[in-house]
Design a protein that fits this description.
With 279 residues, the protein is mainly α. The chain contains six helices and no strands.
Length: 279
């Protein structure tokens, strides 16, 4: 019993000790947080500035380059005015003053041109980096697409239809069937009334002789100054003459005999009389 009591008491001691340590850590953590918030309020927090994108940087550089170009245009206009003034003014102090002013303007122009060249080189570097970044993204997308296609092809090739032996035998069967179809078509295309003793070489000789005869006839017609028959424009037959239509026949003047009285009812007109009146 004493050993059991000692064990239980030791267990409770460890439990309360652990609980005390955890509560102490929590209190210290809260105090540290409070102290940190107070320090942040006193001294402030360093703000994290997000880096601009390459597109934004390119746009800013382009805008600065355009503004510098506008300044260079204005300086060119001032230089043109100064040149005209130097031509009009006689040599002397006034002309020297205009020349000094023109010299200052030229220095400004050189400075702006140097800045513009630097901006162009920076913009070129940024564009190169942007192109490389887009190329890397495209490469990653291409590799992912190829991996997905490879997996799909592997699953497709595992099907029974991709057995090379079965495909080879199927190809042989199709070749046999097509050959059998050709034989059937040849049998069906044979003519029944054709004599068996016909010589195809003789027929070809006769055909060549007919062609030679046609060529000789054509040469004779051309030599006599006649137009070949297949090039002649034979006149078309004349159209038949249309006869004028005569006068329409007059309607008969004789009266149509009336129907008997017993054939008509009261209030009805006989059909013969009605047709006569229409005529």
């Amino acid at each position: 019993r004493t050993n059991l009591f000692e064990k239980v008491s030791f267990f409770f001691f460890l439990f309360f000790r652990r609980h005390l340590v955890l509560t102490t850590i929590r209190v210290l953590d809260r105090q540290n947080k409070l102290s940190l918030t107070k320090m942040k309020r006193l001294f402030g927090v360093k703000k994290t500035v997000e880096a601009p994108s390459l597109e934004e940087t390119t746009g800013k550089l382009d805008a600065r380059a355009q503004s510098i170009d506008q300044k260079i245009k204005l300086i060119d206009q001032q230089l043109a005015k100064s040149r005209d003034q130097i031509k009009k003014i006689r040599p002397g102090p006034s002309q020297d003053a205009v020349k000094k002013r023109a010299l200052i303007i030229l220095k400004q122009k050189k400075m702006y041109e140097h800045q513009r060249d630097q901006l162009y080189s920076q913009q070129y570097n940024v564009d190169s980096v942007a192109f490389a970044t887009e190329n890397a993204k495209a490469t990653v997308d291409t590799v992912r697409a190829m991996k997905a296609a490879s997996k799909e092809l592997k699953t497709q090739f595992k099907q029974k239809e991709f057995d090379i032996d079965k495909i080879d035998s199927l190809n042989d069967q199709m070749a046999d069937l097509l050959e059998y179809n050709e034989e059937v078509q040849e049998v069906l295309g044979q003519s029944y009334a054709t004599p068996e003793d016909i010589d195809e070489d003789g027929l070809m000789d006769e055909l060549d002789a007919l062609e030679l005869d046609l060529e000789e006839d054509l040469e004779n017609e051309i030599g006599n100054g006649e137009i070949p028959s297949y090039l002649r424009d034979d006149p078309l037959p004349a159209a038949p003459e249309e006869k004028p239509l005569g006068a329409m026949p007059n309607a008969p003047s004789e009266k149509v005999p009336e129907a008997p009285a017993h054939a008509t009812n009261a209030g009805e007109v006989p059909p013969q009389k009605e047709t006569a009146e229409k005529v």
